[in-house]
Sequence to fold (48 residues):
Amino acid sequence: GELDRRAHDSTWVDRHRARLGSVSWFMKVMKERIARRANRVDGCTGSF
Fold:
């Protein structure tokens, strides 16, 4: 499946391994998900 394909793609693995070690990347992803959910609930758009 897709997981097997990704596991054999060294570029994808290297990129995601670096991201997993980056606190700033993790916080960016979390902030985006929270903002999207809050905007959907509030019926608005824009930054959180």
The radius of gyration is 15 Å. Helices lie at 2-7, 10-20, 23-42. The chain has one domain: 2-42.
